[in-house]
Amino acid sequence: MAMDSGVHIPVMLKEVLDYLNLKKEGIYIDCTFGKGEEYLKEMGVQEIDGILFDLGLSSDQLAEERRGFSYRLNSPLDMRISEETKLRAEEIINNYPCEKLADIFYHYGEERKARAIARKICY
Predict the structure, then answer these.
(1) β-strand 7-9 against 2-4: which pairing, if any?
(2) How far apart are CA 47 and CA 85, in angstroms?
(3) Which family does it belong to (predicted)?
């Protein structure tokens, strides 16, 4: 997926449309950028026939040094998927209690060694 000023630009549109089993008069929503619900409300749509989600990070986000996703680059630990989000990973790592870090690693990262990793960071 390519991003340009916050606007989602589909890069595999033809392939996705060829793969999906679309109804000619169906209503579909692309939730890749998270604005789908707003558009449905604005258009008065109450039922949809399908939803397409892209739940991964984009290569643009990973490659941009200032975004702080890479462990290979010497950049601030940011890791915000949306730059509108105020809280950065650096603030979490440096200020959250060890127990809360462990919970984050376990619940969101499904990391079995969450407690040990959190202890290494905290102590």
Answers:
(1) antiparallel
(2) 30
(3) Belongs to the methyltransferase superfamily. RsmH family.
Contact 97, 85 (CB under 8 A): no
Contacts of 112 (CB under 8 A, 6+ apart): 106
AA letter at 58: S
Cβ proximity of 46 and 37 under 8 Å: no
Mode of pairing for the β-strands spanning 7-9 and 50-52 = unpaired
Q: Could you tell me which of 77, 70, 85, 86 has the C-alpha nearest to residue 34?
A: 85
Say which amino acid occupies 28: Y
CA angle 44, 50, 52 (to 5 degrees): 105
**Paired strand residues for 117:** none
Q: What are phi and psi of 13, to 5 degrees?
A: -55, -50
Amino acid sitting at position 38: E
